[in-house]
């Protein structure tokens, strides 16, 4: 009950064309256009629903909103009360915002690091399945998770665990926490950083072959591979990361595990089973690494 899954992420992007090129040529993901007032928004077709990733033209690159799908109106009201009791100001989304999300109801608040967090009811299906090139089928299958870093890690944990009722799956020193709202290993991870940022967004793929073909296309098209192919220790996903046009990472992955009610949170120690070599310094490296 409550929050059911990660629904969508909106980004302000300075170069929408570069994003569309990355999504199309490397990932085989179509991009459609919609409007909010006079603004044209690019929507990435990750699955049968209207969108999971929205790209808003802007003079700067920054996160715009994170949307979580809520089970029912009753649960939306219950979570709203919990947020109000915890001191968060909750507002209704506009009619245009609600329509763009494909939702029937929309509320939002600002998290401890200043990002807009939305709670939506309803998802609009607009296709039976997204069109994919012959070498990218099934290809991308949906939005997996994201990693939020910021200077108020304790407050972020309090929000997601105590107020929004996410559950801690596992963690790794010196301060990286993986949280879930369903059986998926994690939908969000929280980490400390001096300034707020999204470290990466993960796009789920249907198979290791899809990930491998995307890896080949990234190399062929000169897309900067920021973290090499590898397998994570905690969720067992196989993935690689590219540097997207907004400057942070996009993870291309598959094979993450589900967990059940008997799962016990633990420090999983080593970050990877193999691979995942960083071209830059890993900001979340453990002391042992």
Automatic annotation (TrEMBL):
<keyword id="KW-0223">Dioxygenase</keyword>
<comment type="similarity">
    <text>Belongs to the extradiol ring-cleavage dioxygenase family.</text>
</comment>
<dbReference type="Pfam" id="PF00903">
    <property type="entry name" value="Glyoxalase"/>
</dbReference>
<feature type="domain" description="VOC">
    <location>
        <begin position="142"/>
        <end position="255"/>
    </location>
</feature>
<dbReference type="GO" id="GO:0008198">
    <property type="term" value="F:ferrous iron binding"/>
</dbReference>
<dbReference type="InterPro" id="IPR037523">
    <property type="entry name" value="VOC_core"/>
</dbReference>
<dbReference type="GO" id="GO:0051213">
    <property type="term" value="F:dioxygenase activity"/>
</dbReference>
<dbReference type="InterPro" id="IPR029068">
    <property type="entry name" value="Glyas_Bleomycin-R_OHBP_Dase"/>
</dbReference>
<keyword id="KW-0560">Oxidoreductase</keyword>
<keyword id="KW-0058">Aromatic hydrocarbons catabolism</keyword>
<protein>
    <submittedName>
        <fullName>2,3-dihydroxybiphenyl 1,2-dioxygenase</fullName>
    </submittedName>
</protein>
<feature type="domain" description="VOC">
    <location>
        <begin position="5"/>
        <end position="122"/>
    </location>
</feature>
<keyword id="KW-0479">Metal-binding</keyword>
<dbReference type="InterPro" id="IPR004360">
    <property type="entry name" value="Glyas_Fos-R_dOase_dom"/>
</dbReference>
<keyword id="KW-0408">Iron</keyword>
<dbReference type="InterPro" id="IPR000486">
    <property type="entry name" value="Xdiol_ring_cleave_dOase_1/2"/>
</dbReference>
């Amino acid at each position: 009950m409550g929050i059911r899954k990660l629904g969508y992420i909106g980004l302000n992007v300075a170069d929408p064309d570069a994003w569309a090129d990355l999504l199309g040529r490397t990932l085989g993901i179509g991009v459609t256009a919609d409007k909010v007032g006079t603004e044209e928004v690019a929507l990435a077709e990750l699955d049968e629903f209207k969108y999971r990733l929205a790209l808003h033209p802007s003079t700067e690159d920054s996160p715009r909103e994170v949307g979580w799908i809520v089970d029912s109106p009753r649960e939306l009201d219950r979570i709203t009360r919990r947020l109000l009791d915890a001191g968060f100001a909750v507002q209704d989304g506009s009619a245009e915002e609600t329509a763009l999300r494909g939702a029937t109801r929309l509320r939002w608040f600002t998290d401890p690091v200043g990002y807009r967090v939305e709670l939506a009811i309803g998802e609009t299906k607009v296709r039976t399945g997204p069109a994919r090139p012959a070498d990218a089928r099934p290809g991308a299958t949906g939005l997996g998770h994201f990693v939020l870093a910021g200077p108020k890690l304790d407050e972020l944990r309090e929000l997601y665990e105590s107020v929004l009722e996410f559950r801690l799956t596992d963690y790794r020193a010196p301060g990286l926490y993986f949280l879930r709202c369903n059986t998926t290993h994690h939908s969000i991870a929280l980490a400390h950083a001096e300034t707020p940022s999204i470290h990466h967004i993960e796009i789920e793929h249907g198979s290791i072959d899809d990930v491998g073909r995307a890896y080949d296309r990234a190399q062929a098209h000169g897309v900067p591979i920021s973290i090499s192919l590898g397998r994570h220790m905690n969720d067992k996903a196989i993935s690689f990361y590219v540097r997207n046009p907004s400057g942070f990472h996009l993870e291309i992955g598959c094979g993450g595990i589900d967990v059940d009610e008997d799962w016990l949170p633990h420090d999983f120690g080593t970050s990877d089973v193999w691979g995942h070599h960083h071209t830059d310094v890993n900001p979340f490296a453990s002391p042992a690494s």
